[in-house]
Amino acid sequence: MASILSRLFGGSSDKPAGGAKAKGKEEAHGGFVIRSQPISSGNQWRLAGFILKQDEAGEQTREFQRADTFTSRDEAEAAGIRKGKQIIDEQGDNLFADGEATGRV
Known about the structure:
Elements: H1 2-8, E1 26-29, E2 32-36, E3 39-41, E4 44-55, E5 58-70, H2 73-91, E6 102-104
Parallel strand pairs: 5-6
Antiparallel strand pairs: 1-2, 2-4, 3-4, 4-5
């Protein structure tokens, strides 16, 4: 009952409003951190996330989004981690070669 009232009056829900990004899992890989952040799209979740690099110059991030959709948030989070690993394995430090603090992949 409290859960229903909470949702009616703006309380938190596991699924954000349409198009909102849900904070997901994080995992280290190859000296980078992958943060899976699926995007709610109707009754599905779209694959999205960030790759972060921390060094003496500060933190740099690269955002990635793909058209892949999943029926559950957990599936989308896991796919985001896998995609982040694939991007790192293919591009490595070249992801951050432009020196910009933020960017898209």
